[in-house]
């Protein structure tokens, strides 16, 4: 006598997901719009069963600020909240991939996202105004004072250059474009002018747009005892 025996072989979840890359790198500008696509991670599972090979993605760690999200189905990472390079310039996310098998198997990969700078900060002077004094007999190139401004951006966007942009008698003085040092340029004469005011501009070197700030500089020219006393006739 023969008996028909039907044996169903069920798939065993014996393969874990495997990321195509262990470490992913991406860069994104700090002014991108929300929903901007940053990078897509990809994991594979060698199991043949649809359940065992179905992969779900999630952010395991590194997203405490909630700046990014990942699509559970396709591994697309997008921007969820506004980025600010001056606050955080690099994010390191640990991405997990888990299959739907029993028991579930998982894998992780690292995603390093660098935030690129845009020129969104103007130079800021250290003081609200600058004042200096110089004797009228000072020779050309004599140092008077230094103005200084800082810019929170990086690279060319954060490099500051100085120039004198306006002011009566401002041609009597020069400013170093890099250091901001103000020096004597022309011949001074207190009998002609005792006080000189001029405007100094600090501008960054942004490639796409330049930002600038201005400050008032006041120079008092002090007297030099150049005339001897005389008796009027």
List the main descriptive attributes of the protein structure presented here.
single chain; 233 residues; mainly beta; Immunoglobulin-like; 2 domains; 4-stranded mixed β-sheet; 1 helix; rod-shaped
Notes on the protein architecture:
The protein is mainly beta. The chain folds into 2 domains: 98 residues, Cadherins (Immunoglobulin-like, Sandwich); 99 residues, Cadherins (Immunoglobulin-like, Sandwich), CATH 2.60.40. Helix content is 2%, strand content 43%. It is built from 1 helix and 18 strands. The strands form 6 sheets. A 4-stranded mixed sheet has the order 2-9-8-5. A hairpin with a 5-residue loop joins β6 and β7. The radius of gyration is 34 Å and the shape is rod-shaped. The mean pLDDT is 91. It is found in: Membrane. GO terms for molecular function: beta-catenin binding; cadherin binding; calcium ion binding. Its main location: membrane. It comes from Strongylocentrotus pallidus. Keywords: Calcium, Membrane, Repeat, Signal, Transmembrane, Transmembrane helix.
């Amino acid at each position: 006598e023969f008996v028909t025996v039907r044996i169903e072989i069920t798939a065993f979840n014996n393969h874990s997901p495997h990321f195509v890359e262990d470490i992913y790198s991406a860069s994104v500008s700090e002014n991108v719009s929300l929903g901007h696509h940053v990078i897509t991670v990809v994991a594979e599972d060698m199991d043949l069963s649809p359940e065992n090979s179905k992969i779900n993605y999630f952010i395991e760690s590194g997203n405490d600020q909630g700046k990014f999200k990942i699509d559970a189905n396709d591994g697309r990472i997008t921007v969820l909240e506004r980025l600010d390079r001056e606050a955080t310039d690099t994010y390191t996310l640990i991405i997990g991939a888990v299959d739907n098998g029993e028991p579930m198997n998982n894998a992780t990969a690292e995603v390093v996202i660098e935030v690129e700078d845009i020129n969104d900060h103007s130079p800021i002077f250290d003081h609200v105004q600058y004042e200096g004094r110089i004797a009228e007999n000072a020779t050309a190139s004599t140092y008077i004072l230094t103005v200084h401004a800082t810019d929170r951006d990086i690279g060319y966007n954060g490099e500051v250059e100085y120039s004198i942009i306006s002011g009566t008698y401002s041609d009597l003085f020069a400013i170093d474009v890099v250091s901001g040092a103000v020096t004597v340029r022309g011949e001074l004469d207190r009998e002609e002018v005792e006080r000189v005011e001029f405007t100094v501009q600090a501008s960054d070197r942004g490639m796409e747009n330049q930002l600038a700030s201005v400050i008032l500089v006041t120079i008092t020219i002090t007297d030099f005892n150049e005339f001897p006393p005389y008796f009027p006739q």
